[in-house]
């Protein structure tokens, strides 16, 4: 049966206090609170820093049984040139992440813009030598030639052969501005690239990274299209992990909840969002 999960890129965000997280929550409680509200998280933190095994164990202990992590391969693996010389480090990372037990979702490899189709042989070897039976692998490419023939077809054939899921990066919402002053990434240290969106499934599982605009209204048309696409995939037995990002991270949870609501209104068979099942504490009445 196809699985639908929704979440954000991170769980440690102080801007969520008072809205997504109760006001006054401690940072040490953020993951537990996040796991009570979302069903998965994009493990962006592992891209920048590899945790110790005790940390991974705490992650597992602080989340519900049905929760899933999608850890990103460290940049030392994916951003150091060819992949095959880093295969041993990639497998060590997988072993570390297996400390999550049943809460480990697919491992996510994000290739930098400089990793072009000229490295196809290297990518083919890396994919072929990944232990797919231990953990599924998902792949995001950013060099623009990967989105053009004949490289697009070669990549899709490779991923389909090994049942490697595509990571679909949708940055359209943050490029809808007409003048620079409206650019939601204007103050972002790490700007998301403008790459083509080609919603193709090469495996029984698809990861979507939706980079939302801080203004909900600018997301409505894009999310309407995703409601249809996600519904189609689930009907075909394809599982979907849908991650909502935002240049203003404070907005991500609310936009994720809006998308969940649109799926439900459209009759798409998705599990309830845990956040929506949490009752808000009653307002304390004044004494006078």
UniProtKB/TrEMBL annotation:
InterPro entries: DUF72, UPF0759_sf
Name of this chain's protein: DUF72 domain-containing protein
Naturally occurring in which organism (per UniProt): Adonisia turfae CCMR0081
Lineage: Bacteria, Bacillati, Cyanobacteriota, Adonisia, Adonisia turfae
């Amino acid at each position: 049966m196809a699985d639908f999960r929704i979440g954000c890129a991170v769980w440690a965000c102080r801007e969520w206090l008072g809205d997504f997280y109760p006001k006054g929550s401690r940072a040490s409680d953020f993951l537990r609170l996040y796991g009570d509200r979302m069903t998965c998280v994009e493990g962006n933190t592992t891209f920048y820093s590899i945790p110790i095994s005790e940390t991974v164990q705490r992650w597992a202990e602080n989340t519900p049984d049905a929760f899933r992590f999608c850890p990103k391969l460290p940049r030392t693996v994916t951003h150091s040139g060819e992949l095959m010389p880093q295969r041993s480090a990639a497998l060590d990372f997988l072993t570390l992440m297996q400390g999550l037990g049943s809460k480990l979702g697919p491992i996510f490899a994000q290739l930098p813009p400089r990793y072009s189709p000229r490295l196809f042989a290297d990518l083919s070897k890396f994919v072929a030598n990944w232990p797919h039976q231990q953990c599924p692998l998902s792949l995001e490419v950013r060099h623009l030639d990967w989105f053009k023939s004949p490289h697009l077809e070669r990549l899709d054939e490779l991923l389909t052969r090994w049942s490697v899921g595509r990571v679909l990066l949708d940055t359209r919402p943050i490029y809808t501005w007409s003048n620079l002053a409206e650019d939601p990434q204007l103050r972002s240290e790490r700007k998301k690239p403008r790459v083509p969106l080609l919603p193709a499934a090469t495996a029984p599982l698809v990861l979507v990274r939706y980079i939302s605009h801080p203004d909900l209204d600018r997301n409505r048309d894009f999310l309407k299209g995703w409601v249809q696409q996600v519904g189609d995939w689930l009907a075909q037995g394809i599982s979907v992990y849908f991650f909502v990002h935002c240049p203003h991270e404070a907005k991500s949870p609310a936009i994720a909840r809006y998308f969940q609501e649109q799926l439900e209104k459209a009759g798409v068979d998705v599990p309830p969002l845990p956040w929506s099942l949490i009752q808000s504490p009653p307002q304390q009445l004044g004494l006078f």
